[in-house]
């Protein structure tokens, strides 16, 4: 039996395991596939909500705490593992915003650098953008991270920690509760015992909790993306150096010159099939922002499943009615953005420490009218709102 059992080897699960292990605890992590290969791999890696002023205050607080940790986090992982997550802090241009006044008011309240810039400023920094832009909103502090490499680095770090037992290709079939307390999980390889169980299953979290008759409103939301391989432009600069966002679509440059375009939002259950319709739409959006991409190769087109939750608020905390059962899921499009804060907030609760911020907005709660009796019968329904 281990001190902690974590289900899910995405960035959330791996960061949680890392913190618990460094605090001196034994941790077992179970991943149905390969660590870091689901939503953590499929996203773009922008270290900010796309339109942060459109989110609630609790999300802003989580995001603000996380953003300030990423430079050190990336540097530490690069030093300790030899895998560079490529954190880049070159800023973001917002094009054609219809709520620019709201954005500026949010930035003033948050003390966040955000400025209106003219076309000269814009094209001086990104000369290959489409003609005819009359300026943009400029957020100079925005960063991005190469999320597949972040996942690789986190996995490599976990393998060096003696307190961590990592099991990939291990499918959890159901959660096990005895007399109202978590006892472990049944997997395709047998039962794994646990005193405390943390479900970080991303879009699959709701399904896992259903094995106890619990209902958590976390659903899969499909997103498709593509990446272009681009040549080095004149003067050894890249075709695109900074993140650009327009009409809900974004371009993200990588250090090697590749440019990502994302993303679609689709209600397709657990289907991760790519479609020609999405490919055409993404391609059109990319070329509209950066016309030179029409001469570049589309290197890869993929789909992932985001864990959607009501109002975009993740569930972080102990599940009612089941002692020792915790969840950290429902981060929607902001899993990478919020991961440092979301995992620290849960670890603070697990270890009885003063939390980094108020956890109450994120706690799973029983819906009105449900019983407060402990859950020890698989058929029992408990809803969370």
UniProtKB/TrEMBL annotation:
Enzyme Commission code(s) on record: 1.4.3.19
Put simply, this protein is called Glycine oxidase ThiO
What does the UniProt keyword field contain? Oxidoreductase, Thiamine biosynthesis
Q: Which GO terms describe its molecular function?
A: glycine oxidase activity
Question: Which residue intervals define the domain FAD dependent oxidoreductase in the entry?
Answer: 3-348
Residues making up the signal peptide according to the UniProt record: none
* PANTHER family on file: GLYCINE OXIDASE, SARCOSINE DEHYDROGENASE-RELATED
Which pathway or pathways does this protein act in?
Answer: Cofactor biosynthesis; thiamine diphosphate biosynthesis
Instruction: Kindly give the NCBIfam families that the UniProt entry links to this protein.
Output: thiamin_ThiO
- Output the superkingdom of the source species: Bacteria
């Amino acid at each position: 039996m281990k001190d902690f059992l974590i289900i899910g080897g995405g960035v959330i699960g791996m960061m949680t395991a890392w913190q618990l292990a460094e605090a001196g605890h034994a941790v077992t992590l179970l991943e149905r596939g390969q660590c870091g290969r689901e939503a953590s791999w499929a996203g773009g890696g922008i270290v900010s909500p796309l339109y942060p002023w459109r989110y609630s205050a609790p999300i802003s607080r989580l995001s603000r705490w996380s953003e300030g940790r990423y430079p050190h986090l990336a540097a530490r992982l690069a030093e300790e593992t030899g895998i560079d997550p490529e954190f880049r802090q070159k800023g973001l241009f917002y094009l054609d915003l219809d709520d620019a006044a709201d954005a500026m008011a949010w930035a003033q309240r948050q003390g966040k650098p955000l400025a209106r810039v003219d076309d000269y400023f814009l094209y001086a920094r990104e000369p290959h953008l489409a003609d005819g832009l009359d300026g943009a909103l400029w957020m100079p502090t925005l960063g991005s991270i190469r999320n597949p490499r972040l996942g690789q680095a986190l996995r490599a770090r976990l393998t060096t920690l003696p307190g961590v037992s990592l099991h990939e290709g291990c499918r959890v079939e159901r959660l096990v509760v005895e007399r109202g307390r978590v006892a472990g999980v049944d997997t395709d390889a047998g039962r794994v015992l646990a005193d405390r169980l943390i479900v970080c299953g991303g879009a699959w979290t709701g399904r896992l909790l259903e094995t106890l008759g619990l209902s958590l409103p976390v659903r899969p939301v499909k997103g498709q993306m593509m990446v272009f391989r681009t040549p080095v432009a004149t003067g050894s600069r890249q075709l695109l150096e900074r993140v650009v966002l327009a009409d809900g679509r974004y371009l993200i440059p990588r250090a090697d010159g590749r440019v990502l375009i994302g993303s679609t939002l689709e209600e397709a259950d657990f289907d991760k099939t790519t479609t020609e319709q999405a490919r055409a739409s993404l391609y059109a959006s990319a070329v509209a922002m950066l016309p030179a991409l029409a001469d570049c190769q589309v290197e890869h087109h993929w789909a992932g499943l985001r864990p959607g939750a009501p109002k975009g608020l993740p569930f972080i905390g102990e599940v009612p009615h089941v002692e020792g059962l915790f969840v950290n899921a429902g981060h929607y499009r902001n899993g990478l953005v919020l991961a440092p804060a979301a995992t620290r907030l849960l670890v603070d609760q697990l270890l009885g420490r003063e939390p980094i911020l108020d956890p109450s907005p994120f706690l799973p709660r029983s819906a009105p009218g449900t019983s407060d009796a402990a859950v020890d019968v698989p058929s029992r329904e408990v809803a969370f709102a």
